[in-house]
Amino acid sequence: MSELITVRVKPGSAKGPLVEAGADGELTVYVRERAVDGKATAAVTKLLADHFGVPRSRIALVSGATSRVKRFRID
């Protein structure tokens, strides 16, 4: 069974790496990596895998590759 989650990414944050859940169910993910050459997205994928306790291979970016609001599918 797969689940879709919406994530708001805060790249280049000194607060990161951190995952915060909002009241509306949207996750805010703070990462230290800058949004250059997909480094922030890769860091978010790794952080989400750790947060949900699944391998990175089970997390896929569905939409928002160049946006701060991204949707991921967790299998």
From TrEMBL:
Transmembrane segments: none annotated. Pfam families: DUF167. It comes from the Bacteria. InterPro entries: DUF167, YggU-like_sf. Belongs to the UPF0235 family. This is UPF0235 protein MPRF_38070.
